[in-house]
Write a structure and sequence with these properties.
By secondary structure, this protein is α/β, with parallel strands linked by helices. It contains ten helices and eight strands. Helix 4 packs antiparallel against helix 7.
Length: 264
Amino acid sequence: MPFTSARTTRVHYEIDGEGERQAPGLALVHGVGGDAEKVFANVVDHFSDTRTVVRPNLSGSGLTDDDVGELTVDLIADQVTAAVRDATDGPVDLLGFSLGAVAAAAVAAAHPSLVRRLVLVGGWTHSGGPRDRFYFETWRKLLETDRDLLKRFSALTGFSAATLDRFGHDGLAQSLADPWPPAGIVRQIDLAGRIDIRPLLPSITAPTLVVGFGGDAMIPVEGSRQLHAAIAGSRLVEVPGEGHMDWFADPSGLVKLTHDFLDD
C-alpha cells in the first residue's frame, strides 16, 4: 500500500502493472467524492498490461491523510505530482475526471516535462457562473441536511435517464445502501465550488484530449468546450446523450477514446 508526501499530506495511491513497459506510465485522477478504486477499478485492466498505472487519492479520499485544512487546486495538483514521481520515472500520460480533470490540467500547466499527453474528462474551467455556484451550494446543503437526498440528487444529475433505467429498481436501491459519500467529500465540494483555472490553461503544452458529455447535468458540456478553447491545439470530443458518470457502468467508449489518443 504505497504512500508518498506532498506538503502536509500523506498521499495514498494505488499502482498496477509495475515493471518494465514499452509504453509510458498512466496516471488516473478521480473527482469529488470518488477515490482511486471506486472510479477507476473497471478501467485499470484496460491499460495495466502495457503500462504502470498510478491512481492517487486526493485529500478526503482513500487513505490520504492531511491537516484537514482548506483544499486548493495547487494542493491537489501537488498530490498528483508527488504520486506520479514516486511511482514512475516519468513523463506520464495523465487522465483526470471531473475535479480530477482540474487537478490534471494544473499539473500539466505547472510541470510540462512530467506530462506527455493529457486527457480531461468531464472537466470545467471555473465555478463562477450562477448555475455552477448554485449546483455546488445545493450539494453542500444536502450533505449537511440529508445524505440520502444527496445520493438521490447525485444519481439523478450524474447519470443519464437511460442509464438509471438500466440500473433498475434493485440497482438504485443498492446505490442508496452504499456507505458513500466519504466524510472528506465536504472539502472537495467546497473546492469544486470555487474553481478557477483559467489563468493556468494557456501554459499547457502537452497534446490534450478533452472529453465532454452531451447529456451531463452535473458538469455541463460547456465546461469541456471552455477547456478546449483555452488549451492550444487541444482536441474536443463530445459524447452525445451521455451523463457525467455513465461511463462508470460501461467504460468501453472512454477506454477506446483514451487508447486511440494516447497510442496515436
